[in-house]
């Protein structure tokens, strides 16, 4: 009886946590790993996969789909339905882009994306302009490894000490703080 | 440190308020997940899917599971994010999957000129049932499969047309 109850409690907490996590990751922001070196040296400046960058992707831009030239975005692939790519927007709707062979106009509702590492990047030079509706979020900053983002590391250290100090003032027993 | 003492006094009330807020927040998150990933209702209007869908607007139930598993087939009515305006959703029928060859007439009012096209990899060809009043793949070309957001299940309003869509 006790085991059943415990299992039910754990399932309920996991389900709630999962739903809240999915909502936050859809509407607010999420952290995604960057694979490959098509955005070197902006992301993954070394080729070692142990040191892959993790970036913060914000989803507030999906309310009105207004982007600027130079934004790094995460978008679903136009050719492979399960893939997602991270590239930079270099052309907004209505602009003219000169690709290798000719000059192309970016149609309404589309954008031209290119990787920073032009030598090894699969981008609009191959599959053409992509509809803005494929974009799944905008990259704002690198969150891992911490040495790539000193402001974030500093902030995390300060936040830790502030929380510790406030909990001491509120007489919260220090070992119960870890249970949170 | 007076404000910290006030914090201590109001701890009971704060805890209760936080509990109530968290119940509401969890409920809203559940609504979001159901609406985005399982099933939702959409109001569709416009002449492009006559006679299947009415001009003045219907409410249809759309499910959001099939397209994630790649199970969108020929003849399905799908909800697609418009490739010309990403803030709008359009409802059209899928008439061609990747690799299919289609021929359509570029201007149905004028008549004869026929264009043949092969749907590229990862794309689908969507068309409205009302060929004379629909902007669809005949205008903006095949759309990437990832723009599909849901598949229509059945119509729930107006009640006299309740039932599945064919």
Automatic annotation (TrEMBL), chain A:
<dbReference type="InterPro" id="IPR019533">
    <property type="entry name" value="Peptidase_S26"/>
</dbReference>
<keyword id="KW-0999">Mitochondrion inner membrane</keyword>
<keyword id="KW-0645">Protease</keyword>
<feature type="active site">
    <location>
        <position position="38"/>
    </location>
</feature>
<protein>
    <recommendedName>
        <fullName>Mitochondrial inner membrane protease subunit 2</fullName>
    </recommendedName>
</protein>
<dbReference type="InterPro" id="IPR037730">
    <property type="entry name" value="IMP2"/>
</dbReference>
<dbReference type="InterPro" id="IPR000223">
    <property type="entry name" value="Pept_S26A_signal_pept_1"/>
</dbReference>
<keyword id="KW-1133">Transmembrane helix</keyword>
<keyword id="KW-0496">Mitochondrion</keyword>
<dbReference type="GO" id="GO:0006465">
    <property type="term" value="P:signal peptide processing"/>
</dbReference>
<dbReference type="GO" id="GO:0004252">
    <property type="term" value="F:serine-type endopeptidase activity"/>
</dbReference>
<dbReference type="Pfam" id="PF10502">
    <property type="entry name" value="Peptidase_S26"/>
</dbReference>
<dbReference type="InterPro" id="IPR036286">
    <property type="entry name" value="LexA/Signal_pep-like_sf"/>
</dbReference>
<keyword id="KW-0378">Hydrolase</keyword>
<keyword id="KW-0812">Transmembrane</keyword>
<feature type="active site">
    <location>
        <position position="87"/>
    </location>
</feature>
<dbReference type="GO" id="GO:0006627">
    <property type="term" value="P:protein processing involved in protein targeting to mitochondrion"/>
</dbReference>
<keyword id="KW-0472">Membrane</keyword>
<dbReference type="GO" id="GO:0042720">
    <property type="term" value="C:mitochondrial inner membrane peptidase complex"/>
</dbReference>
<comment type="similarity">
    <text>Belongs to the peptidase S26 family. IMP2 subfamily.</text>
</comment>
<feature type="domain" description="Peptidase S26">
    <location>
        <begin position="10"/>
        <end position="105"/>
    </location>
</feature>
Automatic annotation (TrEMBL), chain B:
<feature type="active site">
    <location>
        <position position="48"/>
    </location>
</feature>
<protein>
    <recommendedName>
        <fullName>Peptidase S26 domain-containing protein</fullName>
    </recommendedName>
</protein>
<dbReference type="InterPro" id="IPR019758">
    <property type="entry name" value="Pept_S26A_signal_pept_1_CS"/>
</dbReference>
<dbReference type="GO" id="GO:0006465">
    <property type="term" value="P:signal peptide processing"/>
</dbReference>
<comment type="subunit">
    <text>Heterodimer of 2 subunits, IMP1A/B and IMP12.</text>
</comment>
<feature type="domain" description="Peptidase S26">
    <location>
        <begin position="117"/>
        <end position="157"/>
    </location>
</feature>
<dbReference type="GO" id="GO:0004252">
    <property type="term" value="F:serine-type endopeptidase activity"/>
</dbReference>
<dbReference type="InterPro" id="IPR052064">
    <property type="entry name" value="Mito_IMP1_subunit"/>
</dbReference>
<dbReference type="InterPro" id="IPR019533">
    <property type="entry name" value="Peptidase_S26"/>
</dbReference>
<keyword id="KW-0472">Membrane</keyword>
<dbReference type="Pfam" id="PF10502">
    <property type="entry name" value="Peptidase_S26"/>
</dbReference>
<comment type="function">
    <text>Catalyzes the removal of transit peptides required for the targeting of proteins from the mitochondrial matrix, across the inner membrane, into the inter-membrane space.</text>
</comment>
<keyword id="KW-0378">Hydrolase</keyword>
<dbReference type="GO" id="GO:0042720">
    <property type="term" value="C:mitochondrial inner membrane peptidase complex"/>
</dbReference>
<keyword id="KW-0999">Mitochondrion inner membrane</keyword>
<keyword id="KW-0496">Mitochondrion</keyword>
<feature type="active site">
    <location>
        <position position="92"/>
    </location>
</feature>
<dbReference type="InterPro" id="IPR000223">
    <property type="entry name" value="Pept_S26A_signal_pept_1"/>
</dbReference>
<feature type="domain" description="Peptidase S26">
    <location>
        <begin position="20"/>
        <end position="110"/>
    </location>
</feature>
<comment type="similarity">
    <text>Belongs to the peptidase S26 family. IMP1 subfamily.</text>
</comment>
<dbReference type="InterPro" id="IPR036286">
    <property type="entry name" value="LexA/Signal_pep-like_sf"/>
</dbReference>
<dbReference type="GO" id="GO:0006627">
    <property type="term" value="P:protein processing involved in protein targeting to mitochondrion"/>
</dbReference>
